[in-house]
Amino acid sequence: MITVVKIGGNVIDNASALSGFLDVFSKLEGPKMLVHGGGKLATRLSAQMGVKTKMVEGRRVTDKKTLDIVTMVYAGLTNKNIVAALSARGVKAVGLSGADANVIPATKRAPNPIDFGYVGDINPAEVNTDFIKTLLDADIVPVFCALTHDSHGSLLNSNADSVASAVAIATSHISATRLVFCFEKPGVLLDVEDDNSVIPIINRSKYAELRAKNLIFEGMLPKIDGAFKAIDNGVKEVIIKCADSLLCNTGTTIQE
Ligand SMILES: Nc1ncnc2c1ncn2[C@@H]1O[C@H](COP(=O)(O)OP(=O)(O)O)[C@@H](O)[C@H]1O
Ligand SMILES: CC(=O)N[C@@H](CCC(=O)OP(=O)(O)O)C(=O)O
């Protein structure tokens, strides 16, 4: 079973939480991949550089300046620090953007109804699964940042949850795959302020009910959208859980 793990910006931004997560991730058995975000740091650096951040339903509106900033933050600082930390833990990790080996091509979003700028949507059928298989067969752990490319020379910014979902769908065609979204909370919560309110299972009708009541919003939206897409397209298991309990049987399971 291949495991695709996604780790988000709130954990990456907390040195001890990230270190604890990487300790556990390095112990995870079997072929595995890591997809990381880093949105929080990108927002902070943008502010320091005088560039305004605009998020719509958990996705960053990405103009040219913002694209340059996220490229530096995601493909540079964040990706390389994670790869170095995994190497220190004895994991043979290789850091990749979607442009490397043409591993994740994407299509720039149409400017209507919202112009997201340099934001790319991924077709999982276009993911370079052969290349990923070559790495996994060599016991190498690919570490993906959330940058894709348009095949015409421009990088694109994709939501890291969408990257994780697309990669998991792609590898599910070569081997059974499970997808684990790790973040700072213990799962999808009925009350976002109450860590004891984890919803154990979410199916489509439950999701519709929770959205209608505004109990799921912002960054949780691309996560759950990516989770359903994965489940609908061949991924065996999708779980949303806390980064510090990667190996435990906890969190929210997404079901058809
Ligand atoms: N029902 C919910 N349960 C848990 N978190 C939720 C929920 N609805 C919205 N959220 C928000 O989604 C955030 C996670 O999304 P995001 O910040 O994008 O995470 P990451 O960067 O880890 O992908 C949480 O910090 C929380 O503020
Ligand atoms: C298009 C888009 O929204 N891209 C995301 C990519 C990073 C990300 O998803 O980071 P987290 O997982 O930490 O939220 C962004 O720039 O915020």
UniProtKB/TrEMBL annotation:
Its EC number is 2.7.2.8. Keywords: Amino-acid biosynthesis, Arginine biosynthesis, ATP-binding, Cytoplasm, Kinase, Nucleotide-binding, Transferase. Residues 1-241 form the Aspartate/glutamate/uridylate kinase domain. GO terms for biological process: L-arginine biosynthetic process via ornithine. It catalyses: N-acetyl-L-glutamate + ATP = N-acetyl-L-glutamyl 5-phosphate + ADP. Substrate binds at residues 38-39, 60, 157. This is Acetylglutamate kinase. NCBIfam families: argB. Pathway: Amino-acid biosynthesis; L-arginine biosynthesis; N(2)-acetyl-L-ornithine from L-glutamate: step 2/4. One of its GO terms (cellular component) is cytoplasm. It is found in: Cytoplasm. One of its GO terms (molecular function) is ATP binding. InterPro entries: AceGlu_kinase-like_sf, AcgluKinase_fam, ArgB, Asp/Glu/Uridylate_kinase. It holds the Pfam family AA_kinase. CDD domains: AAK_NAGK-like. Catalyzes the ATP-dependent phosphorylation of N-acetyl-L-glutamate. The record marks 6, 223 as: Transition state stabilizer. It comes from Pseudoprevotella muciniphila. HAMAP family: ArgB.
